[in-house]
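Reopening this ticket.

The earlier resolution said the output was attached, but the attachment link was broken on my side. Pasting everything inline this time so it's all in one place.
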Amino acid sequence: MSDLGRPITVDLLVLPGCSLLTLASAVEPLRAANRQSGRTVFDWRFVSVDGVAPVTSSRIGWPVSGKHNAAAKCDVLAIVAGFGAAQMTDRKLIAHIYRAARHATIVIGIESGAWLLARAGLLDDHRAATHWEDFEEFATAFPNVNLRPDRYVTDGRFITTSGASPTFDMMVDLVRRVLGHPAALDVASSFVHDDLRAAGDPQVNVTLGDANHDPRLVRSIRIMETHVDAPVSIAAIAKRVSMSARGLEQLFARQLGQTPGAYFLSLRLAAARRLVNDTRLTMTDIASRTGFSSQSALSRAFSRQFGVAPSRSRKSRSSAV
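Inline output:
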């Protein structure tokens, strides 16, 4: 998208449960671009499906200018979602998003917004990104979507981001596409943001996000992250990163202070805890999705790691909410 010579209209459809930081990351680069250029390059508005201020993850209502009109044309439609997006299955909501996407030039699913776009069938046969906490569940729910562990993904007119920081980088990149590279750098500099990252960079959780880590360690962890549901042996991982099993053991001990087996198990149990606390999946399904042979095997490992059985963890989380 290049400069149209008129304000580029941006509708940000805000759904309950999204993050304040993500909302700010979605709009502040656009505000800075307008300020830097001395004119209104981007004309944005926050809207909701019913015109009521959505309650964010911080329990703060986010002001909106009104009710979203799915039939209104816009240059950019951004679906901003967070916690609870996986459970947003209302047919009217999905139909609303589907209709609205037909009237937009670019459609962006921000953080968990990809869930709504995928549920509307808009991401079938497309590459997409979502937050790393949702990776396994999303991949299972939408097998026709080519899910990537990237910070954000652009595929045709669809863009999907994985969180607040990638959303900021994506919006700066949108500024670059409209106003050019120097303007994008000025926008980033205005926030003292000197570490712009590319769309294809893996999410921090996948690669530790630390240049001090050995690239072979990073690749090993990426393999583990993508095989949570069907764990591969440490020997197989070592072979794929061109190391011996013993060498990989030493590398993990030196840089992480634990064995690769223990680290892999902690990843699977972290995924299990997210599914236990944030979904209504059965314990049997959760065991299957995190590579445990049975519900009892999951329960034993979960209890050792977190000091509480998964069923009790879910119950206490529900009562706290």
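Reporter confirms the inline version is readable. The two ends are 43 Å apart (CA to CA). Residues 204-211 have pLDDT under 50 and may be disordered.
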